[in-house]
Amino acid sequence: MIEKTTTQEDTHRYFADDMHNDHVLARxxxxxxxEYDSANVCSEAPTTTERMMQPVERLTGGxxxxxxxxxxxxxxxxxxxxxxxxxxxxxxEIINFRIAAQSGLAPKVFYGYPDLSAISQYPKxxxxxxxxFLEASHLSANEPLADENLVLFANGLRTxxxxxxxxxxKSIFELAHSYExxxxxxRPLIVDEAALRLDQLHRELHDTLESKSCHNDLHRQNIMxxxxxxxFIDWEVSGLGDPYFDLATLEVFNxxxxxxxxxxxxAYLERTPSIEERHKYRQMKQxxxxxxxxxxxxxxxxxxxxxxxxxxxxxxxxxxGLDMLHSV
Length: 328
Fold this sequence. Notes:
single chain; about 325 residues; alpha+beta; Phosphorylase Kinase, domain 1; Aminoglycoside 3'-phosphotransferase, Chain: A, domain 2; 2 domains; five-stranded antiparallel beta sheet; two-stranded antiparallel ribbon; about 45% helix; about 15% strand
């Protein structure tokens, strides 16, 4: 870990001049990681300035707010994710990302720095995660899910859900209500109806809810397939929750053929689901539709939201959210 070779004061001093510039910050973090990575192989590793640095490339995809960059030095690529916000939330994301990486279901984490708020020149709290860059593929918008990918997905989720406990974060129900409360401009009646239905579902599910490690944001852009394996990225809202939310999210963002829901649940449970489990799955699918509907409507009200080019801003994002709420 880079923390073993660099003190906190050194890190603050190194970053301080460029805290206003994500692009430069990503470049610096990539340099630190590359030096540490090569130092494990060669004790006389060249300094960053002596190494061949390719242009830093900004990566896009999904609904992520953080700035994400691909940094390449000497032909080896890294992903640097610059995150702004609450220090506890940032630290939780880094902890959970590391746990997932240790299970082989997320890219290897080289470096995670949860809080640079002590830097007087930059008053906001900030985090940085640097991971390996995977040559992997996402599912395109209209690409159907093959049965073999469903099984990979189910096996990966079961590993996460049954593995080491994540750091705790806000529940999906708490996050959904925070999105709902943010919808103040041109608030449609269906938002209030969805909030009431969410509370009803929470009461109905209460006795069956579990507390296991969950990703909580498994839309298509956060699922990657590489060399016959599945990887999950963007652990921003990960935490302890009910596994059925992760399961249901798959169907919110994918159209499953008649037999595929059965294939998916059978693979996850390693047996045929009971009537009660099928009912819970259907209820949690409604929770996921309300959650993402409120999320998208809330995000549509932000003036500058850095989503990827394939995600339509403003009114189109709002319409997508409303469609989800109407589908419940």
